Amino acid sequence: QVQLVESGGGLVLPGGSLRLSCAASGFSFSNSTMTWYRQTPGRERQLVALISGSGAVTRYPDSVKGRFTISRDNTKNMLYLQIDNLLPEDTAVYFCKASALGAWGQGTQVTVSS
């Protein structure tokens, strides 16, 4: 059974940083391309980062490039998202997902506000 558990969200001042974590189990993590999405109320989930199974390849949309860094530790089945220079528009629920699988975790709320 695929399980994805996100953590690390919180309330942060603009300009601050957060590191989100995702604990994965129930599938071949090291062979899976992993992604981070975010969602705000009334909008579709937006892909914000992707990383290949080995970690050698990463991709970001222009809207977050330079501020978001995705990484993984295949020895621990963990996925991470470092978010720097947080902006109010980064406020959302953040989810991790294996690219080829349909399962979603419960997400972690990130709120950027002064």
Protein model, in words:
The structure is a single chain. The chain has 114 residues and is mainly beta. Helices cover 0% and strands 47% of the residues. The protein is built from no helices and 10 strands. The protein has strands at residues 3-7, 10-12, 18-25, 34-39, 46-51, 58-59, 68-73, 78-83, 92-98, 108-112. The protein has a 6-stranded mixed sheet, with no helix packed on it. Strands 1-3-8-7 form a 4-stranded antiparallel sheet, with no helix packed on it. A hairpin with a 6-residue loop joins strand 4 and strand 5. It starts with a strand and ends with a strand.
Strand arrangement in the largest pleated sheet:
2-10-9-4-5-6
Radius of gyration: 13 Å
Order of helices and strands: EEEEEEEEEE
Low-confidence stretches: none
Shape: globular
- Counted by DSSP, the helix tally is 0
- Could you report the average pLDDT, rounded to the nearest whole number? 96
Class by SSE composition? mainly beta
- Strand-residue fraction? over 45%
DSSP strand count: 10
Secondary structure layout plus pairing:
Elements: E1 3-7, E2 10-12, E3 18-25, E4 34-39, E5 46-51, E6 58-59, E7 68-73, E8 78-83, E9 92-98, E10 108-112
Parallel strand pairs: 2-10
Antiparallel strand pairs: 1-3, 3-8, 4-5, 4-9, 5-6, 7-8, 9-10
Brief synopsis:
This protein is mainly beta and 114 residues long. It contains no helices and ten strands.
